[in-house]
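Exercise: predict the fold of this chain.
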Amino acid sequence: MSLFVFGYGSLLYKPVPHYVNCYPGFIKGFARRFAQSSSDHRGTVENPGRVCTIVHSDEWAMYAASHPCGKGDAFPEDDQVWGVVYEIAPEHSSEIKAYLDDREKNGYSEERIHVYGADSKVAYENVLIYVGRLDNPAFVGPQPIDELAMLIATHEGPSGTNKDYLYQLAEHVRRICPESTDHYLETLLAHVKHFEKAGHVPPSEQNS
């Protein structure tokens, strides 16, 4: 049986191995946020970076409303997240599932969801996705956008700089389709670019 996986973060520009097809689409009821601490990819144990996760929209809204740094954390598309569905051939399904379980072990839980096409109709069912839970140890919650941008602009881990993760993610989300712009990502990116332009941090390789 083929495995279908929804990518919304680094999987957009680092696809899973052995995929035979990929399809653009979006999911409903989720918000994409840089609210996950990363000590193994885009930061270190001493200086953890931030990577994006998706959180159920209603959970995020309630959490942000009660959090000191949650004020103003609302964007137009907060109930849907654009990404890509990867179809994995049956002979590699178990292998890729194990690979993803290990890859997403730092604070993610798996769910099965529907993915919608550009016509807003269900295009794929029972699609595997890794979701950040509010009670997982790596979840850090909302943060003032300028503070978050400075953290992303200055941190680095085994997988590279935190800001290049953001640059690549925003670029690949834009490429999905004309409707796929993520205003949260674009706002965060604009703040990082501001710090670079002001000379607070070196320019990103993705922006050179």
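Check your answer against the key: DSSP finds five helices and nine strands in the chain.
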